[in-house]
Amino acid sequence: MTDTSTSSSTRRTPLLIPLFALFGVGGLTAYSKADDAHLAAEWAHCGDLPLTWQMHLSAYGAPACGLLTLVLFWWLARRARRRDAWVGDGWPGKFAIAAVVVDVPLVVLEFFVVWFLYQPSSGEPISCV
Fold first, then answer.
1. I want to staple 55 with a disulfide (CB 3.0 to 4.6 A). Which of 27, 34, 85, 117 is the partner?
2. Nearest Cα residue to 87 out of 7, 5, 9, 13
3. Is there a contact between 69 and 99 (Cβ–Cβ < 8 Å)?
């Protein structure tokens, strides 16, 4: 590779951070849709049903992407510090910092979704009237 392409890819690497943050948001959205479908199926069945694999996959995939966002930002910040630079140089770095600021509360919400996944149901029977 030439020096220009290496520096160009290095400058665009911070754009992976918002991408993985968006994957985490997508996981939360997928969990919401899967939970709604599961609730509709329970009402149609008139009883409790086991959780679906889509609920588990989206519930665990969202915090995985959220944590990957934070780890990737930490890695890029260390790499920039070794070069005596700042990760926020240029618009991709500033965009990455904004994504991390938004991602921190999202990671808390994503872990709450995992916790909520394992909470027992209310135990009340579903009325099929």
1. 34
2. 13
3. yes
